[in-house]
Design a protein that fits this description.
Length: 253
C-alpha cells in the first residue's frame, strides 16, 4: 500500500515529454525532473532543448526529433530509452495550431496538424506501451484543449485534433489500462505560451478570457504542476480515460 505522502511521487520513474523545448511541454518536463523523475525531453529545436537540459542537470536528457514523422517514431522510442531505460511515463505536449480559417485550410496545414497533434501521441505510445506492459505500470498523459469541446475562430484543424484527443484517450484506456497503464488528458485553458502569444499580446482579449473563467484569471505555468503530478503518479491509479480541464472553470460557464 502506498503511503499518503508518496501518492504523488514520481521519484525513480522515467518520463518522456514531447514539446519539451518551450511552453507547457517544457513546464511538464521540468516539474517531473524536479519531482525526482529522470526525464527525456523531445523537440525539434536543438538550442532551446539543450538550454532546458542544462538547467535541469543529470536527470535530464535531450532528443532532437520531429515527431510528425510517424514512420520514424519506432526509432524515437528506442532513442528515448537509451539514457535511463524505457519510459514509465509519456507526456504528449507537442502541438501546432495553424490558425487557418475554414475557407483557407490547406491540405498541407491540415495533414501536419493531424500528424503532430493526433497521430504522434498514438503511434509513439504504441511503441512505448510494450515496456510499460512488462512492468505492469505506465502513465500516458495527452494534451487536450478548450477546443476539445469549444469551436474557436481559425481553429477547425486544431480543434478537430483536440476533440480527437479526448476519444483517443478513452480508447487508449480501454486498450491498455488492464495492463496497469492509465491514459488521461489535461485540457489547459489560456496559459501564456508561444501558441497563445497572440492572445496575451492583446490585453483586451486576455482580460475577456480571464473574465470567462470561474476563478477570474488566466492560467500560470504553476497551475499545471499539481494536475500533472496527479496523473503521472499512483495518486491517479483508478483514474483512466478522463480529460481533466485545467482551465479555471472556463468550460464550466
Amino acid at each position: 500500500m502506498v503511503e499518503p505522502r508518496d501518492l504523488f511521487s514520481v521519484r525513480g520513474k522515467v518520463a518522456c515529454v514531447t514539446g519539451a523545448s518551450s511552453g507547457l511541454g517544457q513546464r511538464a518536463a521540468t516539474v517531473l525532473a524536479q519531482a525526482g523523475a529522470q526525464v527525456v525531453g523531445v523537440a525539434r529545436r536543438a538550442v532551446a532543448l539543450s538550454d532546458w537540459q542544462a538547467t535541469i542537470g543529470d536527470n535530464a536528457h535531450a532528443v532532437v526529433f520531429d515527431i510528425s514523422d510517424r514512420n520514424a517514431l519506432g526509432d524515437l522510442a528506442q532513442e528515448v530509452a537509451k539514457p535511463f531505460g524505457p519510459p514509465d511515463i509519456v507526456i504528449h505536449a507537442a502541438g501546432i495550431n495553424t490558425r487557418q480559417a475554414a475557407d483557407d485550410v490547406t491540405p498541407e496545414g491540415w495533414d501536419r496538424t493531424m500528424d503532430l497533434n493526433l497521430s504522434a501521441p498514438f503511434f509513439l505510445s504504441q511503441h512505448l506501451v510494450p515496456a510499460m506492459k512488462a512492468k505492469g505500470w505506465g502513465r500516458i498523459v495527452n494534451f487536450a484543449s478548450l477546443q476539445t469541446t469549444r469551436a474557436f475562430p481559425g481553429g477547425i484543424a486544431y480543434g478537430a485534433t483536440k476533440a480527437g484527443i479526448a476519444q483517443l484517450t478513452r480508447a487508449m484506456a480501454e486498450a491498455w489500462s488492464p495492463h496497469g497503464i492509465t491514459a488521461n488528458a489535461i485540457g489547459p485553458g489560456f496559459f501564456p505560451t508561444e501558441l497563445t502569444a497572440a492572445v496575451f499580446d492583446d490585453p483586451n482579449r486576455a482580460n475577456r478570457n480571464a473574465a470567462q473563467t470561474c476563478i477570474g484569471r488566466n492560467g500560470t505555468p504553476q497551475d499545471l504542476d499539481g494536475p500533472l503530478l496527479f496523473l503521472c503518479s499512483d495518486a491517479s491509479a483508478y483514474v483512466t480515460g478522463q480529460t481533466l480541464m485545467v482551465d479555471g472553470g472556463y468550460t464550466a460557464k
